[in-house]
Design a protein that fits this description.
By secondary structure, the chain is an alpha/beta fold. It has one domain: 3-Layer(aba) Sandwich (Rossmann fold), CATH 3.40.50.880. The protein has helices at 28-40, 70-82, 84-88, 120-132, 168-174, 184-190, 220-232, and strands at 3-7, 13-15, 21-23, 44-49, 91-92, 103-106, 135-139, 162-163, 194-195, 205-208, 211-214. Helix 4 links the parallel strand 6 (103-106) and strand 7 (135-139). Helix 1 crosses helix 2 and helix 1 (28-40) runs parallel beside helix 7. The longest helix has 13 residues, at 28-40. It comes from Promicromonospora alba.
Length: 234
């Protein structure tokens, strides 16, 4: 059975464009649906954060402020409660070796924009995984974490690769809008990624070799399924 490293942000706030702090965390559906899909298929999923810090759920991902129906929010919360012990004791990224995993999976929420985007330990893991052709998946704002992957000469490891992320339009429609410190899609384009997007809020997954990316929370299950399919084909 495959062994997957799920990397979560340790941030609970994000500095907005105007300098104010905004509460944040991981997006409930992206962790719950992804983890459930992966483990239901028999995968072992280890959780890791910078410093081994317990991750924080973004509370708006569990109510109508995040456009989440009450029934869906209850389902996500119940699943997160069922893995609370694992969430409470994640591995530290600095202690993790890419060689120990068949895939690296990065869910979103705005939190990765605060820490994973420039985390040296994650960058090390992603560059090593890319070199070994290990499957790497990033979902929604989790794609910002790919920016941490710089080669020794300072190049972006995923330049020229096709991928998707939470789009600029989605950020304007239902994200932080003008408050966002940067636009994930734009930042990835500027580093040389080839962005492929679906219509806003559609389930959209893009695969380019060992790199699998999902556009938004609606893409959570499809992204996890694409990872399972890629691992089964190895």
């Amino acid at each position: 059975m495959p062994k997957i490293l799920m990397v979560l942000s340790a941030a609970n706030s994000l500095r907005l464009a105007d300098g104010t702090a905004h509460p944040t965390g991981y997006w409930a559906e992206e962790v719950a649906a992804s983890h459930r899909t992966l483990t239901a298929a028999g995968a072992t999923v280890d959780l890791a954060t910078p410093g081994g810090v317990r991750p924080t759920v973004d509370e708006i991902s569990l109510d109508e402020r995040g456009g989440v129906a009450a029934a869906d929010a209850a389902e996500h919360r119940a699943y997160l409660d069922s893995i609370a012990g694992r969430l409470a004791q994640p591995l530290a990224l600095s202690d993790v070796r890419a060689d120990d995993y068949d895939a690296i999976y990065i869910p979103g929420g705005h939190a990765p924009m605060a820490d994973l985007v420039s985390d040296a330990d994650l960058g090390r893991l992603l560059v090593a995984a890319n070199t070994r052709q290990t499957t790497v998946a990033a979902l929604c704002h989790g794609a910002a974490a790919l920016l941490s992957a710089e080669t020794p000469d300072g190049a972006f490891a995923y330049a020229g690769r096709a991928l998707t992320s939470f789009t600029d339009e989605e950020e304007r429609q239902g994200g932080l809008g003008d408050g966002t410190p940067f636009l994930v899609e734009t930042a990835l384009r500027e580093r040389g990624a080839v962005i492929r997007t679906g219509v806003p809020w559609s389930s959209t997954v893009v695969q380019d070799g060992n790199l699998i990316t999902g556009q938004n929370p609606q893409s959570s299950t499809a992204t996890a399924e694409a990872v399972l399919k890629a691992l089964a084909a190895r």
